[in-house]
Amino acid sequence: MKKLFCSIFGHHFSVSKKVTSHIKEYSCLHCGKQVTTDVSGNLSTLTPELREINRTLEHIYQKRHASHSHPQHQVA
Ligand SMILES: [Zn+2]
Question: How far is ligand 1, taken at its centre, from the CA of residue 67, in Å?
Fold first, then answer.
């Protein structure tokens, strides 16, 4: 029934993980489907490959921002 709900009303994605300022992972509150922002800014199903890419991006992102003591809000 939960998946039927999603197929009728669409998934209700909530951010599950912030990877970078532009890329986030989401999971559906109703069925648990996981998606992520891909490099072109669209939502893609979170595959093990994309999850791996996100871990790499997250690592690079945190490294790059580690020296900033005052996190600044970036306008996309
Ligand atoms: Zn769903």
Answer: 38
pTM of the model: 0.75
Ligand 1 geometric centre to CA of 71 (Å): 33
Q: Which residue, chain included where needed, has tokens 């986030």? A: 24
Question: Tell me, what DSSP letter sits at residue 40?
Answer: T
Q: Are 40 and 49 in contact (CB under 8 A)?
A: no
Residue (of 75, 2, 13, 1) closest to 44 by Cα position: 13
How many A from CA of 56 to the centre of ligand 1? Answer: 27
Which segments in the chain show pLDDT lower than 50? none
H/E stretch holding 2: helix 2-9
